[in-house]
Amino acid sequence: MASQSSSAKICIIGRLSGPKGIVIRTMLEKISPRLFQDFPEVQVLICGEPVLPVDIDFSKRFPRVHFLGKLGSKALPYQEASLVIGAGRVALEAMQHKKPVLALGEKMYVGPINEETKDLAMRSNFGDCSGQENFDFDRMYEDLKIILTSPEITHRYGEFGQNLVKEHYSLSAIEESVRNIYHEALFESNLKRIKEIPVLMYHRVTPGSLTDSIYNIYVTKEELEKQLIDIKKRNLTPIHFADFFSGTLPKRPVILTFDDGYLDNYQNLYPLLKKYKMKAVIYCLADASVQNNKWDLEAGEPETPLMKPAQIAELSHSGLVEIGSHGLEHRKLTTLNEVEVQRELTRSRRILEKITGRQVYSFCYPYGDHNQKIREMTRVAGYRFGVATDMGPAKFSKDLFCIRRIQIFPNTPIRQFRRKTSGWYLRYRKLKGKKGFKGY
Asked: What is the pTM of this model?
């Protein structure tokens, strides 16, 4: 077989003692006869020790196989190699040099490192770690032939490997990974000590009372200010969902959530948050073409404008407002097919993260409408929390994708507001079997 690179060099790097030495020598016995028949000019460079008498004899049978012994890391022939066979650190160093890699370790042959094999490669440390041995040297030789005869594939595998190292094994990637482990530990620690966090549900914040609202999903600016003053007076601390990952939570946390992203949130809520230095979460629609509450108009709710992307960005950059996703267009997810639900979840998150430059941690189900499949899709889409309305467990941490909220209506007496933000309100309603309590 004619090679497109008659001077190709295959570099095999790894210790020649123990199980790995047995694997390398077995591989050489299996593929060398076919290799030198198909590619008579190819050279095989083997870097590792000990070099045994059997290896010297093998070189006499196949003169283009060279046992070089142990070389220092700077002397390893990555630059001159056409492809590298190895595992662990060797595979990473070769990919860093933009060389195609056949991942062969002491437990298994993974294959060429590409999109199809990367997960198995990373999971097995490129062939060194596995519960059972799995070597297919016939497949390995076919993979080797493809690389030796196709410069295009050689280049593609090399680029893929180099990008893989940058994404997962660079110092910045490792730092991010360590940081994520730390954040996950904080998250678990914070969850363990929480029985109930009051998660309050608001929508609009209006200058005064409304006489034409069908659903009464508003509070006045004056009412909200009284509630914020009460929160401060009782030493409650409004938090963001991101705070679960950034440190120890305050003794008495509360989460203030506002659905739909109404313009009056920017006009009336935002000044109050700045005045009292408090945090809130606003669930916005990601489709900028949706400029009002079109989903409520048919029922007779007055038309109300939504915030524009620039206003959403300003709120996010203030540090006082965390932006969550409410989907693209406020569609009822259980009426959509799986592809449409996926689009609502993933595209909305991507758009909002582009607008804010920050991670979107939570998704708020439009109409509070969801099921187990949608909750699982929300998790898979990369959200850490799924927020419902008045349905779900009383305990916050029992189901992070069915977080139950407590609605605040207009004209809520401050005494009732205090009950709703007490930290035991949902458990009390569940225990007493209160009318309207739906959950577990």
From this structure: 0.62
